[in-house]
Amino acid sequence: MYLLRTRSRSTASRRARVSANQFLVGFALVAVTVAGLLSYLAGSAPDGLDATTQRGCTVSEVGGVEQLDGTCIAQQANQHHPVNSPLAGYTVDGNGALTGVAGVLGVAAAFAILVALVRAIGARRRPAPTSDGTARSLAGRTP
């Protein structure tokens, strides 16, 4: 009876464990799906900080460019540096129909940066090899 219990517990725990790589791949797939599909459902009306800074102004379009009329904080704002970049404004080269593609590219870029940082931190924590090729032990070292 004891052997059956031990065997069933170890099998269940093996099935329940998910490796870090499996988790990251699953997380990346969910993030790409959300960025690629749900971004088309997002509203174009300003919210949060944009809406707060535009209180007291009306937005009108003059010659294809938005213009603020009235008195509000947003009139003091300057354009950000990457305003002419390919992914500015959640579009691809200004094409608003490609919002999902811009979202997927943004998630891919953020994920690539995350992986690079994790690898750099992991490489920094690994013990340096000694002259004979074996790793030095960190035990016994005092900071």
Could you describe the largest sheet, including whether it forms a barrel? 2 strands, antiparallel
> How many beta-strand elements?
2
Number of helices: 4
Mean pLDDT: 77
**How much helical structure, as a percent, in the residues?**
40-55%
The strand line-up of the biggest sheet is 1-2
Give helix and strand order, one letter per element, not per position: HHHEEH
Structural class by SSE content? mainly alpha
Distance between the termini: 51 Å
Oligomer: single chain
Q: What shape does the CA trace take?
A: elongated
% residues in beta strands:
5-15%
**Radius of gyration, CA atoms, in whole angstroms:** 26 Å
Low-confidence parts:
none
Question: Can you walk through the features of this model?
Answer:
The structure is a single chain. With 143 residues, the protein is mainly alpha-helical. Helix content is 45%, strand content 8%. The chain is built from 4 helices and 2 strands. It has a two-stranded antiparallel ribbon with strand order 1-2. Helix 2 packs antiparallel against helix 4 (99-125). The longest helix is centred in the C-terminal third of the chain and has 27 residues, at 99-125. The protein is elongated. The two termini are 51 Å apart. The model has no long low-confidence stretch (mean pLDDT 77).
What features would you highlight for this structure?
single chain, two-stranded antiparallel sheet, elongated, 2 strands, mainly alpha, 143 residues
